[in-house]
Amino acid sequence: MKKESLAVAVFGVVIGILATMLVYNLTGGRNVKFDGDYNRWRKLNLILEQVQENYVDTIDMKNMTDAAVVAALAELDPHSVYLPPVDLEASETALAGNFDGIGIQFNVPNDTAIVLNVIQGGPSEKAGLMQGDRIIKVDERVIAGSRTPQDTMVSLMKGPSGTKVKITVSRDGSLIPFEITRGKIPVHCVDASFMIDDTTGYIKLSKFTRTTYAEFAEASAKLLSCGMTRLIFDLRGNTGGYFDQAYLLCNEFLPHGAPVVYMEGLHRPRRDFNADGNGKLQDISLSVLTDESTASSSEIFSGAMQDNDRGVIVGRRTYGKGLVQEPINFTDGSGLRLTVSRFYTPSGRCIQKPYTDGYDYAYDIYERYVHGEFTDADSMKVDRSVEYHTLGGRTVYGGGGIIPDLFVPMDTTRATDFFINCNRKATQMRFASAVFDKYKSELSVIDDFSRLQSYLDALGLERMFLDYAAKTDGLRPVSGEWDLTKDYMLPQIYALVGRYSKLDDEAFYRLYLPVDETIKAAYHGPVNVWDLSIGE
Asked: In whole angstroms, what is the distance from residue 10 CA to residue 8 CA?
């Protein structure tokens, strides 16, 4: 035992001597110290130079540089990020208002992409693709029944304008190949706009792209012509986008000189933005719907409306992103999104949630759910250390998103086992696809909502769905379970089937209204903030 210990010790000494000799030889016998001044990033540059000149193996300078940049930015805030060329292109495409592709929308209910909508005037329509076609191959790659991820399907179909792609579809049992020349495809951010009743309009906005203001102006003008005096503006799930588009939308609702937002940073002097008084919706009553995914530009809009007492914020606390990024692009196609300032609502609130001192930023939304915030307003973590006040004197708070004027909890009471199991297997979506296959010639031409409602009622969707769930997925509600959940599930089923009509997303949102508790709360709730009960 002692011999083994001695051998280990001797071996350790030898290794130590060898290591010492190696360092000694590299430095030429001198204890060389480099100037590791942190100013001008000298230390980082010296380290990278030493790696390049002395590392034992060949290195990939591109990967090393990218890794160093990513690691450095990780020490800043969560929204200062480096984007490699592919990610930068995807980020810019998402907000550009258009992209290069073939011009279809599709669902993947059964591991097969089914064309939901062919964009009018787009390359696919010109080539002859039709709603309901099942995409089997893209070029020579089989994507049907192959567990191909949906984002991979999208990337295979996308490509530069003018290039060609071969799409093979199954239609009525026959395989049909189409050669499609890709082109510019518009991406709409107004998902739906319609009148709920004679005076109440509804607009659903999914993001703030380059075309947001133009699309919103067109949608609101149409609703005004239909007699709208009140608007329910849905920003749930809207993660933001371009600031200028949010500012232009704020301007539509606010009087001349009203503060919208201001920005300020260490290297950016304060800059204020005010309304010019030319907005066309200044006399329209407004309710803004928010949730935990309402972020960034959506929060600028919500905060401006709340602080000016201009609209009632309805729903749940917003995400809490109050940082402003500037783009810095490089010649290799990569780019930096660097936080340069914070935005503040008119009352002076920065609604950025914490991201330091061990706060787990990435899991914040999950933590809200775990702590009951989605179902109980009293569970909201609100920074009450500083009070802010709206134009009319109402107390509001900052430091973690926009807190709604009217809280609407997530409804979990109707989530029966049958409902959960159907969701897990996407039974409703696959059922909707099956209904469309059977009634495609009738359903796809309906362009009037009243006629669509009557048509769906006549189909007997309730019985059809229960039979489908039992036969296809082996799912059957136990005694009393369907009575508890059908009032929630049936509108969802109607909405998914109705989406296959010419009304598309408008049909979906209109048919889903009966079970949307947030819309119902806004519709039946206060028309303006002064109608809110004392203490809210």
From this structure: 5
Report CA Rg, the chain. Answer: 29
297-321 per-position pLDDT tens digit: 999 999 999 999 999 999 999 999 9
- Structural tokens at position 223: 């609703």
290, β-bridge pairs: 315
Would strands 230-234 and 200-205 be described as parallel, antiparallel, or unpaired? parallel
Count other Cβ atoms within 10 Å, centred on residue 252: 18
Three-class HEC string of 14-53: HHHHHHHHHHHHHCCCCCCCCCCCCHHHHHHHHHHHHHHH
The model's pLDDT over 88-111, given as tens digits with 9 standing for 90+, comes to: 777 766 666 667 888 888 888 878
Tokens of 372: 């009951």
Find, among 362, 278, 357, 355, the residue nearest to 323 by Cα: 355
CB of 346 closer than 8 Å to CB of 388: no
Q: How far apart are the first and last CA of the chain?
A: 77
Cα–Cα distance, 327 to 308 (Å, whole number):
30
Kindly report the backbone phi and psi dihedral angles of residue 46, in degrees, each rounded to the nearest multiple of 5, phi listed first.
Answer: -65, -40
Helix (H) or strand (E) holding 496: helix 481-498
- Three-state SS for 418? helix
Q: If phi over 0 gives left and psi between -120 and 50 gives alpha, with beta otherwise, what is residue 152? A: alpha
As given in the structure block, the two tokens for residue 214 are 């133009």
**Nearest C-alpha neighbor of 403 from the set 489, 316, 327, 488:** 316
Measured CA to CA in angstroms, residue 66 lies from 61, 62, 70, 409 at distances of 8, 6, 6, 43
Check if the beta carbon of residue 398 is closer than 8 Å to that of residue 351: yes
Give the separation between CA 523 and CA 536, rounded to whole angstroms.
18
Neighbours of 332 (CB within 10 A): 10
